[in-house]
Design brief:
The protein is mainly β and 425 residues long. It folds into two domains: 238 residues, Jelly Rolls; 132 residues. Helix content is 11%, strand content 42%. The chain is built from six helices and 30 strands. The chain has an 18-stranded mixed β-sheet that branches. It has a six-stranded antiparallel β-sheet with strand order 24-25-26-21-28-29, with no helix packed on it. Strands 23-22-27-30 form a four-stranded antiparallel β-sheet, with no helix packed on it. The longest helix has 16 residues. The radius of gyration is 23 Å and the shape is elongated.
């Protein structure tokens, strides 16, 4: 049924396979190893502050302004205000850089850092002892490494049961940990994960986590957690090596463009590639801004098509561009209109990937940039199935107008086309 898809270039799947190896599912409790005494979190110093930074003896206590050079003690809570940020340095030279509206504390006895809210970049010196990271539904351990965490608890539109969305990404080094979540039947699960450079985990309390890649060079260029402080990161040599590896993989075609490309706003909060939509909110909230009728999978675009089905069939989404080029599993990314536009398929779902529990499969093709004038034709093909036919839904949005078709496709059958006309000029 899927012979032609099994013949895809193995070399080009190297990066995406590494993501798969990093995310193995277990229904078990998370055990974090005891930490070496080299990880000294007994106190920290405010190396730099911008605008409003306060410190309080506990989470519920009244905070007082923290001056540059102030000493932060065990279990103190540091908060930053709007358009504010702070850099804390621990005795072992570990750094924690807090973005706007962040809440941070640390436990010296457990050698743990707690990220309650906001965006934080952490940098642990190489060859130093482990530290535990706690945020949202995630508990993890790092040694010498640099990464970031963005955590919003109870984002707009979410119930207390849903909680917030937590993102964890690595610039260099490794992270090992687990994330807790509860399914729709109320059963608790723990997903174990390992992250390396350029890998990102998106975790929620009410559903399984997702892994994706992010653009390391772009993050370094745009994030105030990196360039919004006067002192360079001590692990820049390791970060530069990770950037070199990333660019080499990119040149070799190993970078599988996934749902999320991470950048940062001026406030230091981690965002989705769509510049005005915070990724900390639920994925459903993200897609409310993408036009009506879309399920919370994938990203937005100037033109967007989404295929949804509920069987184990191998359905494929196609887009034919005005210049005759086609985007599909055969050609997942096409740059056109003299380099001013790009059309991408997010992933080739052979029916094996359930994007939304219990049985929903999704593929998206989006166009971004300045589209060429002309006709954009979407259609669905049933490449292979064991069923007599398979139901599908195709939703296409452009310029505020949404078109939807539904139906059933037998093996090898194509759907009617959905056509978007982009005017000239």
């Amino acid at each position: 049924m899927i012979a032609r898809k099994c013949q895809k270039t193995a070399l080009g799947q190297r990066w995406s396979r590494s993501l798969g190896r990093g995310l193995a599912l277990f229904v078990s409790s998370l055990c974090v190893a005891s930490f070496a005494s080299a990880a000294d979190l007994s106190q920290a110093v405010v190396r730099q502050k911008v605008n409003v930074v306060t410190v309080a003896p506990s989470l519920n206590a009244q905070g007082q302004p923290a001056a540059q050079g102030a000493v932060i003690h065990d279990e103190n809570v540091v908060r930053t205000g709007v358009e504010s940020r702070a850099e804390l340095e621990f005795s072992d030279l570990t750094l924690a850089r807090l973005g706007a509206n962040s809440i941070f504390s640390f436990d010296a006895k457990a050698r743990a850092m707690n990220f309650n809210q906001g965006a934080v970049l952490f940098s642990k010196p190489t060859k130093s002892g482990p530290v535990e990271l706690r945020t949202g539904a995630i508990t993890a351990a790092i040694t010498g490494s640099t990464g970031f965490i963005s955590n919003v608890r109870g984002a707009h539109g979410q119930s207390k049961k849903q909680g917030g969305t937590t993102l964890v990404g690595m610039l260099e080094g490794k992270m090992n940990g687990g994330t807790r979540w509860t399914d729709s039947a109320g059963h608790e699960h723990t997903t174990r994960f390992q992250l390396g450079p350029g890998q990102l985990l998106v975790a929620r309390l009410d559903g399984p986590p997702r892994m994706a890649q992010f653009d390391i060079p772009r993050f370094l260029r745009t994030s105030p957690l990196v360039n919004g402080f006067s002192n360079p990161l001590r692990n820049m040599a390791e970060i530069n090596r990770a950037v070199a590896d990333y660019r080499a993989d990119e040149r070799g075609g190993f970078i599988d463009q996934t749902n999320i490309m991470v950048v940062s706003t001026k406030s230091g909060t981690v965002w989705d590639r769509q510049p005005n939509i915070p990724i900390e909110v639920s994925v459903a909230e993200l897609n409310k801004n993408a036009g009506p009728g879309f399920l919370p999978v994938g990203t937005t675009g100037v033109i967007r098509g989404q295929l949804v089905w509920t069987t184990d069939a191998d359905l494929d989404l196609y887009l034919t561009l005005p210049n005759g080029q086609q985007v599909s599993f055969k050609n997942v990314s096409v740059t056109f209109n003299n380099g001013n536009a790009i059309a991408k398929l997010d992933h080739d779902n052979l029916g094996r990937t359930i994007d939304i529990q219990p049985n929903i499969r999704v593929e998206n093709i989006v166009v971004n940039g300045v589209p060429l004038a002309g006709l954009y034709t979407f259609l669905v093909n049933n490449f292979g199935t064991r069923n007599a036919s398979d139901p599908f839904k195709l939703t296409v949005n452009f310029n505020g107008r949404t078109q939807v078709i539904t139906g059933n496709l037998a093996n090898g059958q194509n759907s009617p086309p959905v056509i978007v006309r982009v005017p000239g000029g």
